[in-house]
Amino acid sequence: MNKLFLVLGLALILSNFLVSALKIASALNTIEYTPELVAIQDDYKGSAQIVNGGVASLFSDSSIDLASNAETQALRQYSSHKNLRIIYTVAEVFYRIVANKKSGISSPKDLKGKKIGTIPSTSAAYFVQKYLATVGLKESDYTVVPGSVCMSAPCGSGTLPYMLAHGSVDAVGMWEPTGELASEALGSDAVIFQNQSVYREIFNLHSTAEKLSDPTTRQNIVAFLRALNQAEKVFDSNPESVWSRVASALSMNATVLQSVWPIHSFKGTLVPDLLDVLVAEDQWVAKVDNRNAISKADLTNLIDSSVFNESLST
Ligand SMILES: *[C@@H]1O[C@H](CO)[C@@H](O)[C@H](O)[C@H]1NC(C)=O
Ligand SMILES: *[C@@H]1O[C@H](CO)[C@@H](O)[C@H](O)[C@H]1NC(C)=O
Ligand SMILES: *[C@@H]1O[C@H](CO)[C@@H](O)[C@H](O)[C@H]1NC(C)=O
User: Fold this and answer.
1) Whose CA is nearest to atom 14 of ligand 2?
2) Under DSSP, is residue 87 helix (H, G, I), strand (E, B) or coil?
């Protein structure tokens, strides 16, 4: 009899545990997502798991509660999923263009007529055209060549650092560590262009209106944001303590991770200028996706600051 109660009790505890587990979709090969990992390992009291994916996973798999991605993918999904919500900024990243001096490039204007490697339709492609527009170059002034990321040297064929080193592109515009590995592949022939005031990636955490209005799920999400607030403090002020864990989670060289760390910013917030960034960026995403741009009034509903605010209150 006692044994039966014990078994029933355990089953009940286990089912509560399973029901309340948070499922998060993130690109598992990005530095940006790693505060989520550390938040789960060090600070989150409930159960949570991260699976490979992004904002699109929220709409292809109803078991996903949270998803992280750059602002570009949020705009892409929001056009057909008006229940998408941005609730937190996990990281901001100051993208760079790495160019080959041997292609005759010493200033950004020299990229006219050149081949630039990136991943089309992503935040990196948006960055390239936005940055080059500031020096008067239109998208028709250069050729975008698609390539893939590299997490660790030696970078294989098909990756952007390899393509740059082998002359199939003259420059690479990408997030990290691909940018850094592209620069290391060129050595002293590398020239780097960056302007933090023109563009930075805003890598956010997202959910849906339905998930956020479910009391239990919302409570878990708020608790997860509290854990994320703690992890972000460590990433910002004591990064040495997480470098080896982050490097091993990403199968990255720890020295390379340290050299790209200052390009990233972990502030544990929801960035205040997000709406303006989204309004401007959707002009480009709409063109790429062959749809009409979303109005500012409509984009206002993509951002829900109430969850982050709740995570700050005691
Ligand atoms: C960065 O871009 C801003 C806006 O276009 C411009 O005013 C500024 O001079 C640029 N800074 C550098 C270092 O190029
Ligand atoms: C890590 O990268 C650095 C260059 O940033 C290199 O000197 C070092 O040999 C690499 N370490 C390993 C274990 O590959
Ligand atoms: C969250 O807090 C910010 C800053 O205090 C405020 O501007 C915003 O309106 C709040 N959001 C909600 C939904 O109350």
Assistant:
1) 253
2) strand
